[in-house]
Design goal:
Number of domains: 1
Radius of gyration: 17 Å
Oligomer: single chain
Largest sheet: 7 strands, mixed
Shape: globular
Number of helices: 7
């Protein structure tokens, strides 16, 4: 019964609206601190494409970690839960690319490469949509190797949070909170290193900013 409701287009739109409303309440009722914002601002001034990477568990409030006027598109799964998220972020003015970062490849790869050539700003959860948690998929690394696009890791945390018992330990937050967003160092695929070495570098930086956000939000 629940699965049928989630697959219904009208239900997906309604749930997306509810989620977007909750996200807005959390944002406007809370204190926000952004660390290393100059990193993303400097990159945007170059007017080149950027991939903003954040773990799937930190998806909920990611849209409010920056306030740039640049168009921002997110890669969202085409599954029913992904469609709900896509509807939610659409109410926040964010466009989506339907697809996902699978183990061996990324669906909608051609569309993503087209957006990169158009110098678009893209948001991707490289461990989504099904994990394993905080492990970057091979398909995502192949994309980086093909395009040499700049990646900027991003994470946020909150003083009051609940980590759900999902595969990604999804972080649920409350209104009237204290949020801290942290931008990581820009990373580009290094052709002199192996794919595994490049993957380790990116994972380590994403984990670093995630841990820093957790510590600063206490």
């Amino acid at each position: 019964m629940i699965k049928q409701i989630l697959k219904n287009e009208n239900s997906q739109k309604f749930l997306g609206w509810i989620i977007s409303l909750y996200i807005k309440i959390c944002y406007h009722s809370s204190l926000w601190h952004v660390k290393n914002n100059e990193v993303i601002e400097k990159q945007l001034r170059k007017k080149k494409s950027v991939l903003i990477c954040f773990w799937h568990s930190r998806l909920l409030m990611a849209a409010f970690c920056w306030n740039s006027q640049n168009d921002f598109k997110m890669l969202i799964s085409g599954h029913s839960d992904g469609k709900i998220i896509s509807n939610a972020v659409s109410y926040l003015g964010i466009k989506t690319i339907t697809g996902s970062s699978r183990k061996k490849n990324i669906s909608s790869l051609k569309e993503i490469i087209t957006e990169i050539k158009k110098n678009s700003i893209l948001g991707i959860t490289p461990d989504g949509p099904k994990g394993p948690n905080q492990k970057i998929k091979d398909g995502f690394m192949s994309l980086l190797k093909k395009t040499s696009v700049t990646i900027i890791p991003l994470s946020y945390s909150a003083k009051f949070k609940i980590k759900l018992k999902t595969w990604d330990r999804f972080m649920f937050v409350t209104p009237f909170n204290k949020f801290v967003a942290v931008w990581g160092n820009p990373i580009e695929f290094d052709a002199k290193k192996s794919i595994q070495e490049n993957q380790n570098i990116l994972e380590n930086e994403m984990n670093r900013v995630t841990l820093l956000a957790d510590n600063l939000s206490k």
